[in-house]
Amino acid sequence: MPELVVRVNGATHSIPYEPGLSLRDILDATNYRVRSACHGIGACGLCRVRVIAGEAGEPTRNERLHLLPALLSQGVRLACQIRPAQDLQVEILNPAPPSNWKSPPDAALLQGAHERAAGDRWLPPGVKHPCGIAVDLGTTNLCLSLFDLAKGKWLADRWGRNPQQRFGADVLTRLAAATGSGDAAREMSRLVMAAIGEALLDIATREGFDPRRVVNVTLVGNTAMLALLSGRNAELLLRPENWERPVDCLPRDTSGWVQEWAINPAAGVDVIAPLAGFVGSDLLAGLVATRFVEGAAPALFIDFGTNSEIALWSGEELWVTAAAGGPAFESSGIGCGMPAEAGAVFRVEAQADGELNYRILGDDRARGVCGSGLVDLIARLLESGRLQPTGRFAGGAASFAFRAGGTGLALDKNDVDLMQQAKAAIGVGIGALCASAGVSTKALRRVCVAGAFGRYLDVASAQTIGLLPMVPPETVELAGNTALAGCCDVMLSSRAADRLGELRSRARLLNLARHPGFAEAFLENLYLQPLRVVNLG
Prior knowledge:
Layout: E1 3-8, E2 11-16, H1 23-28, E3 48-54, H2 61-66, H3 69-73, E4 76-78, E5 88-92, H4 107-110, E6 131-137, E7 141-148, E8 153-161, H5 171-180, H6 182-207, E9 214-221, H7 223-230, H8 255-261, E10 268-271, H9 281-289, E11 299-303, E12 308-313, E13 318-323, E14 344-350, E15 356-360, E16 368-369, H10 371-383, E17 399-404, E18 407-412, H11 413-437, E19 446-450, H12 452-455, H13 459-465, E20 476-480, H14 482-492, H15 494-506, E21 507-509, H16 518-525
Parallel strand pairs: 1-5, 6-9, 9-10, 11-19, 13-21, 14-16, 19-20
Antiparallel strand pairs: 1-2, 3-4, 3-5, 6-7, 7-8, 11-12, 12-13, 14-15, 17-18
Helix pairs in contact: 5-6, 9-14, 9-15, 10-13, 11-16, 14-15
């Protein structure tokens, strides 16, 4: 993999990258963005860099329009016009100001072809180049994707943290806070509304985009997040009798949202209703994006997250459930944890000499370990005997200290405990669905792994600690953010919306809390060992 060496504000950073994107797009997924205001088409002339070493190609026509010959002779170029394919060293001359919003590292997965049914969406007259925004409202992360509705063309993505985290890392804590205080409930709704507006503003200023072109916002999320956003019926989710029923958490009036976001006054807001209980519309969207019931069967779908959702397609029946994965998959609550963004250790590999090699996402200096890196690290320590299947460190050690990219980090017993609890919840969910459908994990022909956590997951490591069933690696698909991809499909195509409706009507919900043997299965799955499905019946 080629390496990009970036000099900015006096510091130098080495970043491995995948060829194919422009230098601007590569930098957009890191902490070293370059200033821009034209969607990277070379019209604004702001994204100036100086090429120090390496091959950047000949200057384009747009570069010659914006840059004097004297600057070009000094190696000054526009980042959006360079598509590096080999090692390249550059200095950012016009760095962008810090932002809470970045292009997601897996944005390329969202830029692919989305199904589009031409002419099946009403568009308000008088709007040139009408656009739509798809939103995935997760417990930890908030992701948006902007499309030209008339052309079905992807325009931009943004990724940031859900600001509700100040009220708790998990859904139950936030629901309890909202139920106990009307002020807290209103603040949680306001925070998400403001965050969506901030992401839109970041797109508008950076891409040279007029928000008044937005005529539709389509939004998916887990049930709790939708209830907290709309301010409706969040308290119902704290009562077990509602965990198998649909919960009405759709907003009654979204005109205020449209006004706050400063989008087209005629814009429509489509909040896709969840299925029931804690199984949200994010799962349904993911099943649409992966064409889950149209592929090989039996098949398993896991959307890893704070509220993890699992589906099993037997070929005849669609079974779904939600498991309380907790924040470990997104590294919230982990002492050395951070999201899967630039600076995160996302892969840990064993070297021939027994030492560990730490690969860092979008940077050469680690700031923490994301979920996939945590799985790898636990697997490597387990394989080397430094960690026992019970989750205790060998020799009575309290933690494992290591250095990654010049940064000292440590994995402690609490971190391991959180991952054990998270993977135990997933194991119980898989076992319950398999038992209900009469399917053995050995018979699975397809396993779809979704979510930011799943994007970078090493299948072998996940199987080593019992997070995924022992199926052939080629059976496993690392699908990325399927909730957002499916939301885009539904926004762009009535056919995709129809498929979501069909999935809703045929899904059979399983409430894990009501299953006998739940506690026994959970305890069995706490061990760091290959997954052993325990029959709950």
